[in-house]
Amino acid sequence: MKGISVIIPYYKGEKYIKETIETVNRALEISSMNYEIIIINDSPEEDISRYLILSSKLRIINNQLNEGIAYSRNKGKKLANYSHLHFIDQDDWIEENFYKKVYSYIQKSYDAIIFNYNLCEKNKLTTGYNLLFSQYIKILSPKQMFKYGNFFKTIGQLIVKKEAFSEFIETETMGSDDAYLFIDLFWNRKSKKIKYIKEPLFNYRVHENNYTEKTDFFKSSAECFHKYKKINKEVAKYEKYLLKRSSGDLYLIYMGRIIRLLTRHDYVSLYWRKLL
Length: 276
Known about the structure:
Its EC number is 2.4.-.-. Belongs to the glycosyltransferase 2 family. Residues 5-165 form the Glycosyltransferase 2-like domain. The chain has helices at residues 14-29, 69-79, 98-106, 131-136, 142-148, 177-186, 217-231, 239-246, 250-263, 265-275, and strands at residues 4-10, 35-41, 58-62, 84-87, 93-94, 112-121, 124-127, 158-161, 194-206. By secondary structure, it is of the alpha/beta class. It has one domain: Alpha-Beta Complex (Spore Coat Polysaccharide Biosynthesis Protein SpsA, Chain A), CATH 3.90.550. A hairpin with a 2-residue loop joins strand 6 (112-121) and strand 7.
C-alpha cells in the first residue's frame, strides 16, 4: 500500500525520544499520506508504553532481548505496512514540511529520496552539504564510497522504497549497517529513481552518547563487507580499497577528507580540530 512507515529503533533513549516522535507525528499529520510510526524497543527491561499517547498511529514492538540496531531496523521493515520506509534514530528530529516534500516524490514513484541535513552541536545548527554536493551526488558510486568512505551522515536522511534494498547487515561490531544500505542502494543506480533534496529538513543531533562516537567503523565495515559479499558477489573487486583505508593509506584517507571539505559545511565545524 502506498504510504510511509516510520521506524524508530529505541535503546535507552528517554532524553530525546518524545521530541522525535512529536516532530515526526506532526509532520505526518499535515502530509496527506497514509502512515504509521513503529518503535522497536531494544531496551526490553524498559516500559515505554507511555509514549503511545503521542500518536494514534504509533505502535511499540518490544524485543525480547537487546538485539542491536540492525536487528531492530530489519524487524521494523518486516512489520511495515506501507510502500516506503523512513528509519530515524531516537535522538534526531525533522522539520514540519519534511513529509509533505516526501509525499510529492512518492507520488512520482521514486525509489529513494535523500535529504540534506542540519547538524545540531551544542544547540547550534550547521547545514550539512553545500551546493557542490548537489552535483557530486550525481556521480557518487559504491566504488567511491569504498575508496573514500561513506558520504552520508545518517540513515534518517533517506526515504526508501521497501523493495529497493536488501536487509540491514547484522554484525557483532555494530556501526556500518546503514553505510551498506547506501552502498546497496547506489549499486546499479541507473536502474533506480533517486532524488536528492538540497533543503536541510532533517536534523542530526550530536551529543556525548552518539552511537557513531563509540564504534570501530573499520572493523564493523569489514564484517559487513564479508556478509554483503554473499548478497552481491560483484562487490569483491572493491575489497582492496577497504583494506587500504583500514591500513592507513594516506592517499585514500586525505582524498576522502578533501571531498568532504569541498562538499560539506558541517565537516569543518565538526572535524577541523581533529585534522590539526
